[in-house]
Specification:
By secondary structure, the protein is mainly beta. It has one domain: SH3 type barrels (Roll). It has a six-stranded antiparallel sheet. The longest helix is centred in the C-terminal third of the chain and has 14 residues.
Length: 113
């Protein structure tokens, strides 16, 4: 099961010409025979102005425990990509049920479901 795992991946930047090894949240399990996974970008740089699809995880909080993140981080749910499972470098941790519920709520709002 990959859903809700925080993993280390080569995440593509806006132009898709470069990648950088970054943590990401797996939003799905493997999809189809090609074993693709939809992931959301996680940043250690919290923007001054958060947007509705941002979810902040504060170091030391109950939501931070078990994530494998080392500093305050923000899950940027509007920055999602589909990648092959074989690009997942390693598992860092996972989110808890409380964060999972917030992720689902924010995704529903983002996609207006």
């Amino acid at each position: 099961m990959l859903r809700n795992l925080i993993v280390l991946v080569p995440f593509p930047f806006d132009g898709f010409s470069e990648t950088k090894l970054r943590p990401a949240l797996c939003l799905t399990d493997e999809i189809g025979k090609f074993k693709h996974v939809i992931i959301a970008f996680i940043s250690s740089s919290t923007p001054k102005e958060l947007i509705e699809s941002d979810l902040v995880i504060i170091k030391g909080s109950k939501d931070w425990e078990g994530t494998g993140l080392v500093v305050d981080s923000v899950i940027r749910l509007h920055k999602i990509v589909t990648i092959p499972k074989n690009l997942l470098i390693r598992k860092l941790g996972s989110i808890n049920k409380s964060v999972e519920k917030e992720v689902i709520s924010k995704l529903k709002n983002l996609f207006e479901f």
